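Problem: given the chain below (334 residues), write out its structure.
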Amino acid sequence: MADFKNNFSWSKSRDETFKSCKRKYYYHYYGSWGGWEFNAERKIRQLYILKNLQSRYMWLGSIVHEFIEAILTKELHEHETNLYKLFGRMRQAMRQDFENSEKGLYTKYPKIHGRTYGLLEHEYNIFVANDEWKEISDNAEKCVANFYNSDTFNYIKSVERKNWLPIESMRTFDFEGCNVYVVIDFAMRGGKNKNKNSKDKSQNLLSDYFTSEYDSYSDENLIIFDWKTGKIRFEEMDVQLACYSLYSKEKWNVSPENIICKKYNVMIDKVDDYEINDDVIEKVKEHIRGSITEMKELLYDKEENTAREDDFELTEDENECRMCNFKKVCPKWG
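Solution.
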Protein backbone atom coordinates (compact mmCIF):
# COMPACT_ATOMS: atom_id res chain seq x y z
CA MET A 1 0.00 0.00 0.00
CA ALA A 2 2.91 2.35 0.71
CA ASP A 3 3.97 2.13 -2.95
CA PHE A 4 0.48 2.95 -4.19
CA LYS A 5 0.21 6.70 -3.75
CA ASN A 6 -2.96 8.74 -3.80
CA ASN A 7 -1.96 11.12 -6.60
CA PHE A 8 -4.15 14.05 -7.52
CA SER A 9 -6.15 13.68 -10.72
CA TRP A 10 -9.25 15.18 -12.30
CA SER A 11 -12.42 13.79 -13.86
CA LYS A 12 -15.94 15.00 -14.53
CA SER A 13 -17.33 12.79 -11.76
CA ARG A 14 -14.74 14.13 -9.30
CA ASP A 15 -15.70 17.67 -10.28
CA GLU A 16 -19.41 16.92 -9.75
CA THR A 17 -18.76 15.37 -6.33
CA PHE A 18 -16.70 18.38 -5.25
CA LYS A 19 -19.45 20.78 -6.28
CA SER A 20 -22.20 18.76 -4.60
CA CYS A 21 -20.59 18.51 -1.13
CA LYS A 22 -17.01 19.12 -0.03
CA ARG A 23 -17.25 16.61 2.84
CA LYS A 24 -18.55 13.91 0.48
CA TYR A 25 -15.62 14.72 -1.79
CA TYR A 26 -13.20 14.22 1.10
CA TYR A 27 -14.75 10.89 2.10
CA HIS A 28 -14.71 9.61 -1.48
CA TYR A 29 -11.22 10.62 -2.58
CA TYR A 30 -9.23 10.87 0.66
CA GLY A 31 -10.94 9.33 3.68
CA SER A 32 -11.56 6.01 1.90
CA TRP A 33 -8.05 5.68 0.51
CA GLY A 34 -6.58 2.26 1.36
CA GLY A 35 -9.94 0.83 2.39
CA TRP A 36 -9.49 -2.14 0.05
CA GLU A 37 -6.76 -3.49 2.33
CA PHE A 38 -7.94 -6.23 4.72
CA ASN A 39 -5.97 -4.62 7.56
CA ALA A 40 -7.38 -1.12 6.92
CA GLU A 41 -8.61 0.91 9.89
CA ARG A 42 -12.31 0.47 10.59
CA LYS A 43 -13.43 3.94 9.48
CA ILE A 44 -11.31 3.87 6.32
CA ARG A 45 -12.74 0.47 5.45
CA GLN A 46 -16.28 1.70 6.09
CA LEU A 47 -15.77 4.78 3.91
CA TYR A 48 -14.42 2.59 1.12
CA ILE A 49 -17.47 0.33 1.27
CA LEU A 50 -19.86 3.30 1.30
CA LYS A 51 -18.00 4.98 -1.56
CA ASN A 52 -18.67 2.02 -3.86
CA LEU A 53 -22.43 1.85 -3.23
CA GLN A 54 -24.74 2.40 -6.19
CA SER A 55 -28.37 3.45 -6.18
CA ARG A 56 -30.72 1.28 -8.20
CA TYR A 57 -30.69 3.88 -10.98
CA MET A 58 -26.88 3.93 -11.12
CA TRP A 59 -26.95 0.13 -11.15
CA LEU A 60 -29.32 0.23 -14.13
CA GLY A 61 -26.85 2.45 -15.98
CA SER A 62 -23.93 0.13 -15.14
CA ILE A 63 -25.81 -2.94 -16.38
CA VAL A 64 -26.86 -1.26 -19.64
CA HIS A 65 -23.32 -0.08 -20.34
CA GLU A 66 -21.97 -3.55 -19.56
CA PHE A 67 -24.28 -5.32 -21.99
CA ILE A 68 -24.00 -2.75 -24.78
CA GLU A 69 -20.26 -3.27 -24.49
CA ALA A 70 -20.86 -7.04 -24.75
CA ILE A 71 -22.86 -6.53 -27.96
CA LEU A 72 -20.15 -4.34 -29.47
CA THR A 73 -17.38 -6.74 -28.45
CA LYS A 74 -19.16 -9.65 -30.17
CA GLU A 75 -19.72 -7.51 -33.24
CA LEU A 76 -16.04 -6.53 -33.27
CA HIS A 77 -15.19 -10.23 -33.63
CA GLU A 78 -17.85 -10.69 -36.32
CA HIS A 79 -20.22 -12.63 -34.04
CA GLU A 80 -23.91 -11.80 -34.08
CA THR A 81 -25.69 -11.31 -30.75
CA ASN A 82 -28.73 -13.40 -29.92
CA LEU A 83 -30.80 -10.80 -28.09
CA TYR A 84 -32.98 -13.33 -26.25
CA LYS A 85 -29.94 -15.18 -24.88
CA LEU A 86 -28.39 -11.84 -23.96
CA PHE A 87 -31.49 -10.87 -22.00
CA GLY A 88 -31.30 -14.21 -20.19
CA ARG A 89 -27.71 -13.51 -19.15
CA MET A 90 -28.64 -9.97 -18.15
CA ARG A 91 -31.52 -11.10 -15.95
CA GLN A 92 -29.28 -13.70 -14.33
CA ALA A 93 -26.56 -11.11 -13.71
CA MET A 94 -29.02 -8.65 -12.17
CA ARG A 95 -30.55 -11.36 -10.01
CA GLN A 96 -27.08 -12.27 -8.75
CA ASP A 97 -26.19 -8.62 -8.13
CA PHE A 98 -29.39 -8.12 -6.15
CA GLU A 99 -28.97 -11.26 -4.04
CA ASN A 100 -25.31 -10.55 -3.30
CA SER A 101 -26.15 -7.00 -2.27
CA GLU A 102 -29.07 -8.13 -0.11
CA LYS A 103 -26.74 -10.60 1.65
CA GLY A 104 -24.21 -7.81 2.25
CA LEU A 105 -21.36 -9.52 0.40
CA TYR A 106 -20.07 -6.10 -0.67
CA THR A 107 -19.16 -5.41 2.97
CA LYS A 108 -16.96 -8.53 3.09
CA TYR A 109 -15.43 -8.51 -0.36
CA PRO A 110 -15.38 -4.94 -1.69
CA LYS A 111 -13.75 -4.36 -5.05
CA ILE A 112 -12.92 -7.97 -5.89
CA HIS A 113 -13.47 -9.84 -9.11
CA GLY A 114 -17.00 -11.09 -9.54
CA ARG A 115 -20.38 -9.49 -9.04
CA THR A 116 -20.34 -7.81 -5.63
CA TYR A 117 -22.44 -4.72 -6.22
CA GLY A 118 -23.60 -2.94 -3.09
CA LEU A 119 -26.94 -1.20 -3.48
CA LEU A 120 -27.62 1.97 -1.51
CA GLU A 121 -31.17 0.81 -0.88
CA HIS A 122 -29.91 -2.29 0.95
CA GLU A 123 -27.24 -0.49 2.96
CA TYR A 124 -29.74 2.06 4.26
CA ASN A 125 -32.80 -0.21 4.44
CA ILE A 126 -34.73 1.97 1.98
CA PHE A 127 -38.03 0.34 1.12
CA VAL A 128 -38.49 -0.31 -2.60
CA ALA A 129 -41.60 -2.17 -3.76
CA ASN A 130 -41.12 -5.31 -5.82
CA ASP A 131 -42.70 -3.74 -8.88
CA GLU A 132 -40.15 -0.90 -8.67
CA TRP A 133 -37.29 -3.42 -8.68
CA LYS A 134 -38.94 -5.16 -11.63
CA GLU A 135 -39.13 -1.83 -13.44
CA ILE A 136 -35.34 -1.51 -13.14
CA SER A 137 -34.93 -4.89 -14.84
CA ASP A 138 -37.53 -4.11 -17.50
CA ASN A 139 -35.91 -0.76 -18.25
CA ALA A 140 -32.50 -2.39 -18.60
CA GLU A 141 -33.91 -4.70 -21.27
CA LYS A 142 -35.68 -1.78 -22.94
CA CYS A 143 -32.44 0.23 -23.13
CA VAL A 144 -30.41 -2.64 -24.59
CA ALA A 145 -33.18 -3.52 -27.08
CA ASN A 146 -33.40 0.11 -28.19
CA PHE A 147 -29.66 0.15 -28.82
CA TYR A 148 -29.64 -3.19 -30.63
CA ASN A 149 -32.44 -2.11 -33.01
CA SER A 150 -31.21 1.45 -33.52
CA ASP A 151 -29.91 3.24 -36.60
CA THR A 152 -26.87 4.06 -34.48
CA PHE A 153 -25.92 0.39 -34.04
CA ASN A 154 -26.71 -0.33 -37.70
CA TYR A 155 -24.33 2.43 -38.72
CA ILE A 156 -21.61 1.21 -36.36
CA LYS A 157 -21.93 -2.28 -37.90
CA SER A 158 -21.67 -0.84 -41.41
CA VAL A 159 -18.23 0.66 -40.80
CA GLU A 160 -15.00 -1.29 -41.22
CA ARG A 161 -13.73 -2.66 -37.93
CA LYS A 162 -10.34 -1.01 -38.42
CA ASN A 163 -12.16 2.30 -37.86
CA TRP A 164 -13.36 1.23 -34.40
CA LEU A 165 -11.38 2.54 -31.44
CA PRO A 166 -10.98 0.60 -28.13
CA ILE A 167 -14.30 -0.04 -26.39
CA GLU A 168 -15.17 1.13 -22.83
CA SER A 169 -11.65 1.55 -21.45
CA MET A 170 -10.41 4.06 -18.91
CA ARG A 171 -8.26 6.67 -20.63
CA THR A 172 -6.06 9.41 -19.27
CA PHE A 173 -4.27 12.42 -20.66
CA ASP A 174 -2.05 15.12 -19.22
CA PHE A 175 -3.58 18.53 -18.70
CA GLU A 176 -1.06 21.12 -17.54
CA GLY A 177 0.66 18.53 -15.33
CA CYS A 178 -2.52 16.89 -14.01
CA ASN A 179 -3.87 13.50 -15.07
CA VAL A 180 -7.41 13.75 -16.43
CA TYR A 181 -9.50 10.56 -16.65
CA VAL A 182 -12.24 9.89 -19.17
CA VAL A 183 -14.27 6.79 -20.00
CA ILE A 184 -15.54 6.96 -23.58
CA ASP A 185 -18.39 4.54 -24.24
CA PHE A 186 -17.53 4.12 -27.92
CA ALA A 187 -15.57 5.98 -30.58
CA MET A 188 -14.83 5.35 -34.23
CA ARG A 189 -13.64 6.94 -37.43
CA GLY A 190 -16.43 7.67 -39.89
CA GLY A 191 -17.00 5.95 -43.21
CA LYS A 192 -18.67 2.84 -44.56
CA ASN A 193 -17.72 -0.78 -45.15
CA LYS A 194 -15.66 -0.59 -48.33
CA ASN A 195 -15.05 -4.35 -48.60
CA LYS A 196 -17.51 -5.27 -51.35
CA ASN A 197 -16.10 -8.81 -51.44
CA SER A 198 -17.18 -9.47 -47.88
CA LYS A 199 -18.99 -12.77 -47.40
CA ASP A 200 -21.33 -11.02 -44.98
CA LYS A 201 -23.86 -9.58 -47.42
CA SER A 202 -25.78 -7.95 -44.60
CA GLN A 203 -22.82 -5.66 -43.98
CA ASN A 204 -22.85 -4.49 -47.59
CA LEU A 205 -26.60 -3.96 -47.45
CA LEU A 206 -26.15 -1.89 -44.31
CA SER A 207 -23.64 0.30 -46.15
CA ASP A 208 -26.34 1.24 -48.66
CA TYR A 209 -29.08 1.66 -46.06
CA PHE A 210 -28.25 5.07 -44.63
CA THR A 211 -29.37 8.30 -46.25
CA SER A 212 -29.32 10.27 -42.99
CA GLU A 213 -26.63 12.52 -41.53
CA TYR A 214 -24.40 9.46 -41.21
CA ASP A 215 -23.76 9.64 -44.97
CA SER A 216 -21.79 12.85 -44.52
CA TYR A 217 -19.16 11.28 -42.23
CA SER A 218 -15.78 10.31 -43.64
CA ASP A 219 -12.53 8.81 -42.38
CA GLU A 220 -11.50 12.30 -41.29
CA ASN A 221 -14.33 12.43 -38.77
CA LEU A 222 -14.01 11.04 -35.27
CA ILE A 223 -17.43 10.10 -33.88
CA ILE A 224 -17.77 9.78 -30.11
CA PHE A 225 -20.82 8.02 -28.65
CA ASP A 226 -22.07 8.43 -25.09
CA TRP A 227 -24.87 6.16 -23.85
CA LYS A 228 -27.41 7.68 -21.44
CA THR A 229 -30.06 5.77 -19.46
CA GLY A 230 -32.06 8.50 -17.69
CA LYS A 231 -35.67 9.27 -18.50
CA ILE A 232 -34.88 12.97 -18.96
CA ARG A 233 -33.28 14.18 -22.17
CA PHE A 234 -30.60 16.85 -21.69
CA GLU A 235 -29.98 18.38 -25.09
CA GLU A 236 -27.23 20.81 -24.14
CA MET A 237 -23.53 20.11 -24.63
CA ASP A 238 -21.96 19.06 -21.33
CA VAL A 239 -18.50 19.00 -19.75
CA GLN A 240 -18.20 15.24 -20.23
CA LEU A 241 -18.53 15.41 -24.02
CA ALA A 242 -16.20 18.39 -24.16
CA CYS A 243 -13.61 16.41 -22.16
CA TYR A 244 -13.91 13.53 -24.62
CA SER A 245 -13.22 15.99 -27.41
CA LEU A 246 -10.20 17.41 -25.61
CA TYR A 247 -8.86 13.88 -25.11
CA SER A 248 -9.42 13.12 -28.80
CA LYS A 249 -7.58 16.26 -29.85
CA GLU A 250 -4.65 15.52 -27.56
CA LYS A 251 -4.36 11.74 -28.01
CA TRP A 252 -5.65 11.06 -31.53
CA ASN A 253 -4.60 14.39 -33.05
CA VAL A 254 -8.07 15.07 -34.46
CA SER A 255 -8.96 18.65 -35.35
CA PRO A 256 -11.95 19.92 -33.33
CA GLU A 257 -14.01 20.59 -36.45
CA ASN A 258 -13.70 16.90 -37.36
CA ILE A 259 -14.98 15.65 -33.98
CA ILE A 260 -18.67 14.77 -33.69
CA CYS A 261 -20.19 13.85 -30.32
CA LYS A 262 -23.40 11.85 -30.15
CA LYS A 263 -25.32 11.53 -26.92
CA TYR A 264 -27.66 8.56 -27.34
CA ASN A 265 -30.33 8.22 -24.66
CA VAL A 266 -31.15 4.54 -25.00
CA MET A 267 -34.04 4.78 -22.53
CA ILE A 268 -36.07 7.08 -24.78
CA ASP A 269 -34.28 6.16 -28.03
CA LYS A 270 -33.17 9.70 -28.90
CA VAL A 271 -29.83 10.89 -30.27
CA ASP A 272 -28.46 14.43 -29.89
CA ASP A 273 -25.49 15.57 -31.95
CA TYR A 274 -22.85 18.11 -30.97
CA GLU A 275 -20.24 19.69 -33.18
CA ILE A 276 -16.92 20.63 -31.63
CA ASN A 277 -14.90 23.76 -32.31
CA ASP A 278 -11.97 25.63 -30.80
CA ASP A 279 -14.29 27.64 -28.53
CA VAL A 280 -15.66 24.43 -26.97
CA ILE A 281 -12.11 23.15 -26.41
CA GLU A 282 -11.02 26.40 -24.76
CA LYS A 283 -14.10 26.49 -22.52
CA VAL A 284 -13.51 22.98 -21.21
CA LYS A 285 -9.84 23.81 -20.58
CA GLU A 286 -10.92 26.84 -18.56
CA HIS A 287 -13.45 24.72 -16.64
CA ILE A 288 -10.89 22.02 -15.76
CA ARG A 289 -8.27 24.58 -14.81
CA GLY A 290 -10.64 26.39 -12.43
CA SER A 291 -11.94 23.15 -10.92
CA ILE A 292 -8.42 21.88 -10.20
CA THR A 293 -7.52 25.17 -8.53
CA GLU A 294 -10.58 25.02 -6.25
CA MET A 295 -9.90 21.41 -5.27
CA LYS A 296 -6.25 22.02 -4.45
CA GLU A 297 -7.03 25.10 -2.35
CA LEU A 298 -8.60 22.82 0.30
CA LEU A 299 -5.65 20.42 0.54
CA TYR A 300 -3.47 20.32 3.64
CA ASP A 301 -0.38 19.60 1.52
CA LYS A 302 -0.71 20.23 -2.22
CA GLU A 303 2.56 18.53 -3.10
CA GLU A 304 1.71 15.33 -1.23
CA ASN A 305 -2.02 15.50 -2.02
CA THR A 306 -3.04 15.09 1.62
CA ALA A 307 -6.23 16.43 3.18
CA ARG A 308 -7.90 16.90 6.57
CA GLU A 309 -11.57 16.11 7.07
CA ASP A 310 -12.45 19.31 8.93
CA ASP A 311 -11.24 21.45 6.02
CA PHE A 312 -14.10 20.16 3.86
CA GLU A 313 -17.42 21.73 4.80
CA LEU A 314 -20.80 20.03 4.76
CA THR A 315 -23.32 21.02 2.15
CA GLU A 316 -26.45 22.88 3.23
CA ASP A 317 -28.44 21.49 0.31
CA GLU A 318 -30.44 18.59 1.74
CA ASN A 319 -31.39 17.46 -1.76
CA GLU A 320 -27.75 16.48 -2.16
CA CYS A 321 -27.93 14.56 1.12
CA ARG A 322 -31.05 12.59 0.28
CA MET A 323 -29.29 9.77 -1.60
CA CYS A 324 -25.76 10.31 -0.32
CA ASN A 325 -23.60 7.22 0.22
CA PHE A 326 -22.00 8.63 3.37
CA LYS A 327 -24.94 9.38 5.66
CA LYS A 328 -23.79 6.74 8.17
CA VAL A 329 -20.55 8.61 8.85
CA CYS A 330 -21.60 12.19 8.18
CA PRO A 331 -21.89 14.33 11.37
CA LYS A 332 -24.90 16.07 9.85
CA TRP A 333 -26.86 12.82 9.90
CA GLY A 334 -25.07 10.67 12.49
